[in-house]
Amino acid sequence: MNNWFECKVSYEKADDGGMPKKVVEPYLVDALSFTEAEARIIEELRPQVSGEFMVVDIKRVRLQELFFNLNGEHYYKVKVLIDSLDDGSEKKATVQMLAQASNVREALDVIDTGMKGSLAGYEVTSVTATALVDIFPFSPETKVTRAITPEPAEQA
Asked: CB 66: neighbour CB atoms within 10 A?
């Protein structure tokens, strides 16, 4: 089971005109604790960010599943109701998932493709774009082994 932490990092970045601009960008890191999350985000960003940067906020994020799509440009938080049986009665559990996609429709396709092997019924109740810049799984292989290509939705 992964422990995901959203780390907000402040640093100076060149804007479209080449002028330095202070930004705060969120990243998702897989770590065992807040301390490890801070150490991991510093380690991951050190080669990518020139100049000084500071981790300004870290919060735990509860995600049931992440679905990577190597063609996706953005990350979408998807709220899903999953059917489950508890003591013989049907219940619905709300979980958060993350889908990498280029748009909302593709995010839904990524979730549908990722949930295809699931025995439980599910219903997507919301899809929200996030500001996440990148995700750093604990194992670098995670992105490759969990990467899926969505099947295009049929046009009516």
From this structure: 20
Cα separation, 16 vs 116, in Å, equals: 41
Q: pLDDT tens digits, residue range 98-128?
A: 999 999 999 999 999 999 888 788 999 999 9
**Cα 24 from chain centroid (whole Å):** 17
DSSP structural state of residue 156: -
Largest CA distance in the chain: 62
What is the predicted pLDDT for the residue at 87?
74
The alpha-helical segments, DSSP class H, found in the chain are 34-45, 104-115, 141-145
Residues 96 and 12: their CA atoms lie apart, in Å, by 32
* pTM (two decimals): 0.82
Burial (CB count <10 Å: 0-12, 13-18, 19+), residue 1: exposed
Among candidates 80, 76, 40, which has minimal Cα distance to 64?
80
Q: Which amino acid is at 24?
A: V
CA–centroid distance for 63 within its chain:
8
CA atoms of 108 and 70, how far apart (whole Å): 15
Residue with tokens 């993350």, as numbered in its chain: 98
Nearest-angstrom CA–CA distance, 20 and 12: 6
